[in-house]
Design goal:
The protein has a single domain (2-130, 163-240), classed as Spore Coat Polysaccharide Biosynthesis Protein SpsA, Chain A (Alpha-Beta Complex), CATH 3.90.550. Helices cover 26% and strands 30% of the residues. It contains six helices and 13 strands. Strands 5-4-1-6-11-8-12 form a seven-stranded mixed sheet. It is globular.
């Protein structure tokens, strides 16, 4: 199976760090985020990786090279203009079988093998890895009818939402729903698939670690957590270092 790692964004929310480094090269512990992802892919038997690059691509290429030191076959797909999170897939060659796509700034203990197995068992065109997140409303929430008669008053309620983890397994048929040379995001793709009555599944990740390293606070949390969670994220890291 092939994996596509999205690493072409400018990472503006993580500035000023990303003024000099692409976000996937930001170090977490003793290795960059993208190296952790690459080692995870290797551990789960995925050795053919395409990295979609754009911003500061030469730095990523210089660090990762052909992937051989990670036991991987790494190639690159260059976007000259921003194409979103799904648009770059149209530039990748030979996506003719089930493949995985993921953001290049994730820290997670997700068992990718179980995700792939779930996707295959469900016979879906797309499977999105998801996790529950709780949002706390810090105000009193008022419920009314059409005449603005108050019928509920809930003080500081919490709501659970199932959110995308930035990792999906896709069938090559999804490429038919992505326009050429236009910005197009994964949410746009999923909406198009649903509108065309295609089977899209959500994989429930219920017990483990996940963090989207998109803002300075998230990055600091990753730095604080890494020593405690590394054995979960790279359970066989000793083997991966050989």
């Amino acid at each position: 199976m092939k994996a596509v790692v999205l690493a072409g964004g400018r990472g503006t929310r993580l500035a000023p760090y990303t003024n000099v480094l692409p976000k996937p090269l930001m170090p977490v512990g003793d290795m960059p985020i993208i190296e952790i992802l690459l080692r995870q892919l290797k551990l789960y038997g995925i050795t053919d990786v395409v990295i979609a690059v754009g911003y500061l691509a030469s730095l990523l290429q210089a660090y990762i090279g052909d992937g051989s030191r990670f036991g991987l076959n790494v190639s690159y797909s260059m976007e000259t203009t921003p194409l979103g999170t799904a648009g770059p897939l149209k530039l990748v060659k030979d996506l003719d079988d089930t493949f995985m796509i993921m953001n290049g700034d994730l820290l997670t203990s997700l068992n990718m093998g179980e995700l792939i197995k779930f996707h295959q068992q469900q016979h879906a065109i797309a499977t999105i890895a998801t996790i529950l997140r709780t949002t706390q409303i810090t105000l009193g929430v008022i419920g009314t009818d059409d005449d603005f008669n108050v019928n509920t008053y809930t003080e500081k309620p919490s709501y659970d939402f199932r959110v995308s983890m930035g990792i999906s397994v896709l069938q090559p048929e999804v490429l038919d729903y992505i326009p050429d040379n236009k910005p197009f995001d994964i949410p746009d793709l999923i909406k198009a698939l649903i509108a065309n009555k295609k089977l899209v599944k959500a994989y429930p990740f219920t017990d483990g670690y996940w963090l989207d390293i998109g803002r300075p606070d998230d990055y600091q949390k990753a730095l604080d957590d890494i020593d405690h969670i590394k054995s979960q994220i790279l359970p066989h890291s000793g083997d991966a270092d050989q």
